[in-house]
Amino acid sequence: MSALKPFFLAIGFAVTATASQAASCSDTGGRYEAWKPEMAAEARAEGVGERGIAALMGTSYSQATIGADRNQKSFRYTLDKFMQVRGAETIIKQGRSRKAKNAGLYDALEQRYGVPAGVLIAIHGMETAFGGYMGDTNIVSAIATLTYDCRRSGFFRPHLIGALKLVDEGSITAKSVGAKHGEWGHTQFLPGNALIYGVDGNGDGKVDLNNLTDAMASTANFLRQKGWQPGAGYQEGQPNFAVIKQWNAATVYQQAIAIMGKRIDG
């Protein structure tokens, strides 16, 4: 996978399924249309409104999402290989420049949430090449497909409910696009996490993770809510490294973010 493309599960572990699943899963797309009304009934019972239900019923089975979910090679690389493939040196170089140009934003975020610029910028660079590629896959269809698919249905189901509620509140629409797993915005939030941790950073009255300020504030808020200790270190063995693990479960990803963040912060 190119260093310019987002990869698996920007934020994967904040939400877990809370309701028993009646809607049946499948390893193929053959029952997808029959599954949608089953899932819609469950979603309605969990408080999803008519706009969200309509978005679910308008989805289609995403073979591109299933293909991406079955092909995540970079997480098996060594750290050195992973950083090379993901373009770490470019992220560090551009990250330092972005920090200097947006010093006011990152200073304000660190003052409010305690998360230093380097970590936020490293995540931003790793996930979407600083917004250069935020995806081209329908968010609701991607999350619905992964919920329907048996492999990790329980993991993705809360994110589907989250996506439908985001449609209800107008943060996204039935046509909004993101990455192959339904991740949204500059730092690739899964919808359930966007619903919980999303922040209106620019004060315009809505959470829009395609907006840089909202996305950076939301990322900082997620890390702080997951236990980030202001002023504590974030390298391996230091207190805040455990919080980076909450963002992504892959060890090489965690290590890369810590290394790049430190170099960006200088």
From TrEMBL:
SUPFAM superfamilies (UniProt xref): Lysozyme-like (SSF53955)
Keywords linked to the UniProt accession: Signal
Signal peptide annotation: 1-22
Record's keyword annotation contains Signal: yes
Keyword Hydrolase: no
Every Transglycosylase SLT domain range: 33-234
InterPro entries tied to this protein: Lysozyme-like_dom_sf, MltB-like, SLT_2
Protein name: Murein transglycosylase
Species this chain originates from: Pseudotabrizicola alkalilacus
Lineage: Bacteria, Pseudomonadati, Pseudomonadota, Alphaproteobacteria, Rhodobacterales
